[in-house]
Structures are given as C-alpha cells and as structure tokens.
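Hi everyone,

Forwarding the result from last night's run.
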Amino acid sequence: MQTVIEIKNLSFAYEGVKEQLKNINLTVLKGEVVVLTGPSGGGKSTLTRVINGLVPYFYEGMLTGDVLLMGKKLSDIPSWERGRYVGNVFQDPRSQFFANEVAGEIAFGCENYGMNHKEIMESVEHTARELKIADILDEKVRFLSYGMRQRVAIASARAMDPLIYVMDEPSANLDMKAAQNLAEILLGLKREGKTIFIAEHRLHYLQDIADRIIYLRDGEIAAEFLPREAAALAAGHRGQLGLRSMTLENLPVLPDTADSEQDALLEVRGLNKAFGRHCVADDLTFSCRPGEVIAVVGPNAAGKSTLGKMLAGLMKEDSGEVSFAKRKLKASGRRGLIWYIMQDLDSQLFGEDLMNELLTGQKRTPEREERAKAILASLNLVEFMEQHPMTLSGGQKQRLALGVALMNESPVIILDEPTSGLDGKNMQNVSRQIRLLAKQGHIILMITHDIECALSTCSRALHLQDGRLADDFKIESAGQLLAVMR
C-alpha cells in the first residue's frame, strides 16, 4: 500500500509558546481514515496544520523533523502546489470562505489553479450534485446553517480532487443529522481511495469509517487504537484518557435533583420573532424552576440561539413576555440577570490574559482575584493564566467563557454549545461546574447538539423545531433523547 503521509521525528513550538508537538512519528497509507483524538490543547490542530503546510509557513515557530507528502518533503513543495495534494476543512468553515455565494466558493480553488471556464463549471456542478447542494448554488454562504457550511467547505476542497483531506473537528458545531450526513460523505471519499486525516473529539459518527484512532496527549502520540478497541474501553479508563464514547445508545442518564416543589422562577410566554417572512420563534412558552439544568435541542437553524439571545436581552422579540420572579422584564432589563455565552467565542473574549478576562468589568479586589484563580483551577486553566485568550485552543476558550459566567454569578445562565471542541474529560469538568451552579439555585439552559454532555448534565429537554416548541420532557433514557436529536 502506498504511503501518502510520512512524519519523521517532528517537533514544533509556536513563537513564545511551549512545545506543542514532540517527536511525532506517523505513517498514513493511501485510502486510510486516521482519526486524531485526545485532550484539548494536546496538539491535534497543530498536527493538522503541519500536514496541510500552515505550520510553519503561516503559523510561525520552530519546526524540526520531516513531513513528506507522496514521498516529497513538504518544504520542497511550493505553497501554491500544496492544495493539489491536500484539501482542508476547518472547524469553523467561515474562516476558510472567500466568496459570497456557494457556487463561487466551490469554484474558488479551481480558478486559482487556472482551470478554464468550462472545466470549472463542470467541476462545480458535479461536486454540488455529489454533495447534494446543487439547489443552494446561488445562496449566500453567510446565511447557511453549520451543516450546509461544512458541505460547502468539503465541496470547495472536493472540486480540486485532492489525494488527502485534512479536517479539524468538522462535527463540532453540527447537529446529529448533519454529523450523520458528514459520515456518509466521508465514507464516500474513503470508498474512492482518498486518504482522510481528521482531528476530532466526537467519535461516535466515525466508528464505521475510521481505520485507526491516534491518541495525542501533551504533544506526543501516547496510544493507538482500532475502533473496536476504543469502543471496548471501560468507562473509567475512557474517562481517564479524556475520550468521548464510541457508542451513544447505552449512556447513563443523570437523576433529576431539582426541587419539584419550588415555583417557577423564569417564565416565558408567547415569544415570537421573525426575520422578514422567516419565523424563528413561534409562540414559545415554558417555565423553569431554580436549580434546573435544561437541554435546548433541535436541528441546526431551529431557533435555539435566537431564543437564547432573546432571553438575555441581546435581541428584541416581536411579541411575548419574559418574567423573572413574577416580574415582567423588557429586553434591556434582562441583561446581566440572564447571562448568555455565545457559540462564537472570539466575539466575546476581550481580556489581555485569563485573569483579566474573568475580572473585566469588576472591581479588582484580593477576594475576587482568589475567586478567579479558583475558577480557573476548577476548569484546568491555571497553567494558561498569563496567556492571551486568543492563543487558547477552541476547547480552552469554551472553558474560559464558562469561567466568565461563573464569575458573574447571574441567576440564569444560557450556554450555547458549551462543549463544542471539548474532550471527554473537560466535558465532564464543564458538566460538574454546571451541576454545581444548579445546586446553588441557578437556572441553566444549555443549547446543545452534544448528547453525551446533555445526558451527563441535564434532566429536562426543550425540543425546538422550525421555531416552535415541539416537546418539553423529562430525560429518562439515552434512546429517548437520541430519537429527538436524530
């Protein structure tokens, strides 16, 4: 079998940051699907950047060792030629889009390689049909759901027909159906003999696709598993490794610890919101008691984030009302009382370092500094205390944003996809922090596609579909929640 990726004695450190990769040796064969997993901040994204040439040519630092693609040293392959070998799909496709419309985005790479107009049109049309996006070629990419954005990102790589696909947590922001659609696309590429190198925490959708699972910890390859070996790991051992589950059907359910005798503290009645003719919230009505942790689930574009923004006063509803402790609140009166942690973390991190981030907007006292340090310790972020928030990995940013919410002690906290980009261990840490807040009487609404986190954190679910509340139920089994989320 032909070797397509070969990494020899590779180490790398970003400028001003401790070593991220240490003595990596790895060989990937033609047609293999290799999954890279392990704790957040362990070097997974960095290793994908090494293979696609972004390290050290865009992300600068000290690199030693060799990387070979198809037997050629990566350093000998001109930057313009690397795209012929490697197609890239990032965690957030928006970071790699160049065009306004879908058709232009798929055509972009082809145009850069000087293909003639007829070839480009044929490639765009063929790729769009293959990935089932032919009906959205004229759509603006910024208006697409996360699942459709991923399809467009894959299509833009596919149009150039590379030998290798490198993907960095492509399922992080996808609902269950979109993740399954992604699995079908990957399986199709595998059947064609394409090589796929994919960094990922969510493993369940890859169990029938992956050939090997590489476990990266502290910048080193610490273990290697076949999918069946990873699935057979005992829950305790899997937890120690910080791995997600390969199967979802038999995950345990969290017992309901909220006091059912208490009156509702947060009440939502008849909430409506539309953008033009598109309704994103249709007569939403529900209530929450102190200490409840509630999963807000449903497909991409169901209106979950819109609901969160309206409750927090960041977006004004068209009609309806929100009450807290029997007092009706205008949108402006909810800010601070209801804390919303966005899905796009880069737009809400402002500090110079992690301590500064937690203390922004607060009077700095020894007591608050101690509390901030304790929160960072509980979220396994103390060692990064002096780093700028933008230098953190996606999973580390998620934990920092939760730390800001913990610091502000708002009675209602809305978390929008708080575990995207988190490994199993840190997902459990976040779950514990959320449950601790609930014990203190906070109401937590968790917008999520992550069934593992929902089962370990929430006892109730609000199911949104097309802007409507399709169901409001107590979570009694993994199968029950899976049926709704799929």
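The domain at 266-485 is CATH 3.40.50.300 (Rossmann fold).

Cheers,
N.
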